[in-house]
Design goal:
Elements (H helix, E strand, L loop, with lengths): L5 E4 L13 H10 L9 E2 L5 E2 L4 H27 L4 H4 L11 E4 L2 H11 L6 H13 L8 E2 L6 E3 L5 H10 L4 H17 L13 H13 L12 E3 L3 H7 L3 E2 L3 E3 H7 L2 H15 L1
Antiparallel strand pairs: 1-4, 2-3, 5-6, 6-7, 7-9, 8-9
Length: 278
């Protein structure tokens, strides 16, 4: 079931090691932002653990964990100064870091994931994540947005209603291509998580559409970011375009729609975008 999630994550090859002006700044960062602390627990047979730790063990653990992080970051900074690649440098500090991830799935998929991972015998870190997701998960009837002049409901992460209205007018009130444009912008912003989280305070639709063009023009196509945007299957035209690569409960990913659309239609989309921008 987990394979049905669309997923993009920060890349060790793309992100640089954090830099600090002095040791005091580095120590402050270790204390406040650079280190994720797991819950102390004791080993047991098989995959089971016990949280029956002594007060001394509880108090000693954070310092030991931070010491390990300090050593890892120190060697990572030395490797970076020596000019080694980011994916080698960052490999040392992975156990201590949080990571930015975009994941998309239907309500049923999320419920299944949460049911598996929120149990007491699950690893604490993934169980804690599942609990946080469960508390933030919207009700299924609240997911999705409607497009003017259509009966379509679609899911487009990181794209605001104001931006959707702008794209509707930019594409000359064309309901189909304006939906494509919103999905394209969303796809580009999901792709950016690999090297920097999307900055919602400085959105730039045209940079995003240009990035989308690069994603779909690459050989082979960088397709995974297109899997987060999804359109409900209302109407025979959209059903025909989506092809067999649909996601659960009547939704089609924008990747399936884009890949199964005729090449002339994809060309028309970019031609209209270029023409209006001139």
């Amino acid at each position: 079931m987990h394979r049905m999630f669309a997923r993009n994550a920060a890349s060790n090859r793309a992100r640089s090691l954090p830099t600090f002006e002095n040791d005091a700044q580095f120590e402050a960062a270790l204390e406040n932002e650079l280190v994720f602390y797991p819950r102390p627990r004791k080993r047991n047979k098989g995959m089971k653990v016990t949280y029956d730790v002594t007060d001394h063990e509880l108090q000693a653990f954070p310092g030991m964990w931070k010491d390990a992080a300090r050593v890892a970051y120190d060697f990572a900074r030395r490797l970076q100064s020596a000019g080694y690649a980011k994916e080698i440098v960052n490999r040392l500090i992975e156990p201590f870091q949080m990571i930015d991830v975009v994941m998309t799935g239907t309500y049923q998929w999320w419920e299944h994931f949460i049911a598996l991972r929120i149990k007491d015998d699950a690893q604490w870190e993934i169980a804690e994540l599942a609990r946080l997701i469960h508390s933030a998960l919207p009700k299924p009837e609240l997911v999705g947005h409607r497009q003017p002049d259509t009966k379509l409901v679609f899911h487009i992460p990181y794209v605001s209603q104001e931006e959707r209205d702008y794209l509707y007018e930019y594409f000359e009130n064309d309901p189909d291509f304006s939906v494509w444009a919103a999905c394209a912008v969303s796809s580009a912003r999901c792709a950016r998580v690999s090297y920097t989280p999307f900055d919602e305070l400085k959105p730039n639709i045209h940079k995003d559409l240009d990035l989308f063009r690069k994603l779909v023009s690459a050989q082979p196509m960088h397709a995974s970011p297109l899997e987060h945007a999804a359109i409900s299957q209302h109407g025979e035209v959209w059903r025909a375009l989506s092809g067999p690569q649909t996601i659960h409960a009547g939704w089609s990913t924008f990747r399936a729609i884009w890949e199964n659309a005729p090449s002339y239609q994809r060309d028309e989309f970019f031609e209209l975008y270029d023409a209006v921008g001139e």
